[in-house]
Amino acid sequence: MNGVKVDADQRPSISDVAVPDVAMSVVVIVYNDAARLPTAVRSVLEQTLRGVEVVIVDDHSTDGSYEVARRLAAEHPDRVRAYRLPENSGGCGAPRNHGILKARGDYVLFLDSDDVLERNACRNFLEAAETTGADLVSGMCVRVHVDSRHRKEVKWYPWLYARTRTLDSIAELPDLLVFDTLSTNKCYRRQFLVDSGLDFPVGIHYEDLLFSAQAYTAARRITLIPNRVYDWNVAEKAGAKSISNRRAEIANFAHRMEMHRRVDRLLADQGLTELKFRKDVKFLKHDLVLHLRDLPSRDASYRQEFAALALPYLASIDPAAYDEVEPIHAVCAYLLRTSDWGNLLPAVDTLTNRDKVSAPLAERDGRVYWCAEHIDEDPLARRILDVTELGYHSRPVGKLFLRNELTEYRQAEGGGGVVRLAGRVTNPLGVIPPAARLTAQLEFYARRQGVRFQTFRFPVPTLRHEGSYVSWEAAADLSKGLRPLGVVDAVWDVRLHLDVDSERTTTRLTAAGPSLATGQVPVRPRLTRLIADRIEPQVSARGHLAFRLVPDKKANVLVTRGLQGTPGRLAKAGYRKAKTLRKKVTSGDTKLRLYHDVFLRMPVHRRLVVFESHLGRQYSDSPRAIYEEMRRQGIDFEAVWSYTGKPQGFPSDATLVRRWSLPYLRALARAEFWIDNQSYPLKLTKRPGTTYIQTWHGSALKRMGFDEPGWKLKSRAEQAEQQRSLDRFDHFLIRSEHDVRTLAKAFRLREKTLLRVGYPRNDALAQARESAERPLLAAELGIPADKKVLLYAPTFRQQGGRRFALPFDVERFAEEFGDEYVLLVRAHYLNHVVLPPSVRGRVIDVSDHHDVTPLLALADALMTDYSSVMFDYALLDRPMLFFPYDYEEYVHEGRGTYFDLLERAPGPVVRTEEELRSLLAASSLEEQTLKYAAARERFVADFGEHDKGTAARRVVEEFFTDWRKAQ
Amino acid sequence: MTVGTRERDVFLVSNSVDEMGGVTSWSHQMARLFTERGHRVHVIGVTTPEDPHDLGELPYPTTRLYDGQPPAPGRARDASMRAKAAVLTDLFRAARPGGVVIVTQVWAMEWVKLADTSGLTVVGMSHESFETSKRSSRFQRVLRHYRDVDRMLVLTREDADLWIGAGLDNASFLPNAVPWLPQVPSPRTEKAVISIGRLSDEKGVDMLLDTWAEVAPRHPGWVLKIYGSGEDEEILRKHCTALGLDDSVRWMGRTSDVPGALRSGSVFALSSRGEGFPLALMEAMAMGVPCAAFDCAPGVHEIIQDGEDGLLARPGNTGELARRLDLLMSDAALRDRMGDAARENIRRYGADEIAGRWEALFSFLER
User: Fold this and answer.
1) Which of A250, A464, A645, A899 has its CA 20 to 30 A from that of A750?
2) What span is annotated as the signal peptide, if there is one (chain B) (predicted)?
């Protein structure tokens, strides 16, 4: 072991007598922490497990910690022993090693003097260890932020501790070694430590990193328990870091790199290559990121020293690890490796602000790269810097969060209130065109979220294109223009709104250097001029320019009194009240009450019809078809369309209301008709005077409603509530008897509500079937006349979030079939896709189109998996092909289907990308048309018998004939 | 008696000594077991039901804190609770060192909490799955009243882990014991699927009927025997008729002869919406009747090893449960294999096994 000589305990005669049934020894190490040591020791003595002893090891403190330790030992002679190292070791390793030597329990735990054990920790450790025979039991550590207002608690890698789990080897769970590198939340069988010769390295920081790795790899069995065992008390660091701290930071980083090297060596020696790989991935994703985030606020010499330490280690990272991390992590690591500081520092901005586009980007050969550098020389750079999949290139400028680097911050001569600001906004891939009309303004707004009392705006007179940037200059007279209330809002953020033609993009000002913006500026707060009349620039945690109201030094006491005393309290209370009130007024409950108690009591609004499609996400489908038919026939009615998000694309001749807004609720409460295709909010009751026409949005392949397991499982009361919302439907449109057997039964609809007229949305398809001409949409999409149109419309998938990954290589597809076809990709409205620029013109994302029907009418063939568009498209009698690449998973793992698609598909079924390619290569669409003609006819008969192209007309005739305007 | 165990005073405290219900039966089952193993047992109930279940001659004493129900919550309740807690304190004080108080239901804990339990080990129990608790007011009460007991026990490791995740770090688990291990298993000759349980929404007999509607047409000659009675009987019978199943469903009513009922069938079905550690499954397995069940609680997949000694379907997925039943009904050899495996495997919940685990726990909590 470490061979440190140690003073004998003061009462050897007592302490050397073995306590008979000590199951656990808790080694408590202390260095100059006399005040907190007793709390730590008490947390051991108060354990629910009684057979626990405390071994205190003092690292030669100078504050009387050892005396405190001895006093504790004297108070509990059977349970507490105290030792002291002959000289300070400067770390945790030496005292813990000494504790291991002195421990007598069957199991050993480590506790730091400023932390505490959960009171059941030892009992839970012991139960797990004895039940499973593990050498090592690990439990959940919780970081307790003791200085925060409500003692904020953060669980330490909780996903590792979700359930009790026993591992026969660390190889079963590499994440444990990679992430949970603490030594303190663990219980070690003492004989295991002795037999494996395990001890902590001495004379180097981060000793836990190596110790935990050694313990994990040596243990024959490891048990994880979900119990909270260890409270790691975290005190917030006070004040800004001084230069000497910076020195310590570099030294620490050197230690950390050394520890990583030692752990890597250990893993290599044991042949644990998978663990090393997972550790590399984590290094890129976490360890490196932590340090990189600090770089923008550090000076050049720090950066150089940091790079000198990091580069050799980065070289040891497996290049394949770059493929496992997010693009921005890989980009940053690569730019650091190549010491490309010019590109690295902006990239770090994106590490901190994940949505931000901080580089100009470059397009080469149909792919998008982080920067133009490196990619032509280094094949690795081509791989790592390729950020096509982030989809920046397909977003309009209004949906991009662009980096805006502050290049100048200058206070006017004479210390007046005018501040000159200049900066440059990144213009990636020229998304801001040179010819665009540009205007901009700077906006100051209070940091507080929620109720915003004040914002202040300043014009930005100068804007011009400069290469891949748009630069700007402004002079803001803060003394005149900024009049903060002063007590409530001490911190002010700044943003720049840039209007590109009519589209607005909003940026934050990034202070790129450590000391770009300094100096105080006089302002005139409205309430607290006497005590605070200046503001001072500061940089937020995310690197953005902000301002803080600073008090005159003499008035500091008054400010404190202002902020914490009566005026501040009153102002803050007023603010909180306003916030609570707004929350209350806008809460769902209040709205529901308003709907039922007020709006429903107002009289029915004659001839008011409320339309909605897909919960307001689209202007589409049968509600749209009915609406347009009503307009065409000159029906006299008042139209309201509901929308979610933005109202673009909704009809201008209707009143548009945002879903769940008060006008929306009022319209629904008073309408004579509700027409939608999915459901109006479940909790809104419908008055008897309102007629609800539920058009529904597609025939069913998957089990629906009460045929779904989730619905069946509901209790009777919950089912009754669900049924009440379904019973609001007065009419339900039916395409075929298949709908009657499935949807109508699944929703338990009464026969008299069923309206066998077909889907209004499909009228257009019946007409298109007769027409030989290609719709105008083809030209809008830029589809050449000689290309056939293949529409790919997959159904909704939950995996991977909103992003839908195409199940085939779209670039290869474009290459092989681009001469013959244009592929339209229509993602489900809850998913989206990203296409690389290389396929431009040959593959087109049409997911944003509100209505799918015109796309169906345009397509010469349809490819889908399980989407209900198959039932509609069949009406066109054009070729269909089915690509259910995950059929088993989708059909059997899910809620089940009403029929077997593979048996009844009216077209070829391919299961793999290979099959898809060979099918398209081998046979023409004409052949497909002929081959499956009978199958398609049968399919239409089975699923669309009522779709005759007259649905909208029949609905209008049935309900709205009386409203026809006098001719 | 095994080495290291000792005779203890064991108090089992429940809502009632003599009401109908799973937890009460469990208390008396354990009281008998502990008594047989030499412990001095006392069964305590808070209330006395209006129509008490006849318990017959008991080999241990019982105490009822109230003759009827306690006063409604309020000042009168509080005063009475203090008085009744004093009764408990007197009983507890008479215990020898090493005594144990097992509180089987969280409501009873409100009285035990007020009593003096010093020197005794207190164990709190929840006999339902975490998810079921979560949906009821018991969730918050368990968190509050069981926070400081020496051990809070649920039925499975998985449920214990969930309680720990919710902040109860003293949570652990101990499964229930199977009440009997019959010498002779079911002959598995009758073409009948058996269901035994209260006819209530929780037991999901409506879903069993939906399932049966999918599977029955493929197996003419087979019947579904539904044992049990309850508040939903009329609704369920109507549902059965609406599904056109009257010819193949037999309504058997409540039975006191569970082994007899199990002998008259070859497959057992469990279609509950929620469960704890279902006794009915254990009994069917002990009789060698293979089971198909909705995997609606950790206790279910703890008892049944899917594909080994029974078959599981995802909760509510009647299509899947129908396929599982279809499999068992179509294949006599499979029924025999799974039935025999079930009979063998269920022994791990044998009375001696479980009682031994309890005694080991008592000793562990003293360390």
Assistant:
1) A899
2) none
